[in-house]
Amino acid sequence: MGFVLGLGLALFVGLGLxxxxxxxxxxxxxxxxxxxxxxxxxxxxxxxxxxxxxDGANFGASDFAYSAYSMVLVAMVSIASLFLLSKSNGFVGxxxxxxxxxxxxxxxxxxxxxxxxxxxxxxxxxxxx
Length: 129
Hints:
This protein has helices spanning 2-24, 28-43, 45-60, 64-115, 121-127. The chain is an all-alpha fold.
């Protein structure tokens, strides 16, 4: 359900920013930057929604230690990619690095549940005979 809402939000944000970018500024350069960043903002909404769902599930399961450690690891990789990509690709590199960050957050959440470790051990016990 969260993913479907994320897709709807992606469509809404993408169309809204495309047609409404003039609300933020009349400067041609600013509108150009909005039009460059808009596909990233819209396309990452489903990824963001999944990351938030898995974060919430891990918090609800009191898996705070995993959440903290995984966020430190994700942040280290993301900060490194931010520095590298912003130097080589500028503004687009920043958006790519933010996409990597949210993708890694989603992966970390899926990983914990998928492996059935920590408080998710009951999933492994119920799914495997």
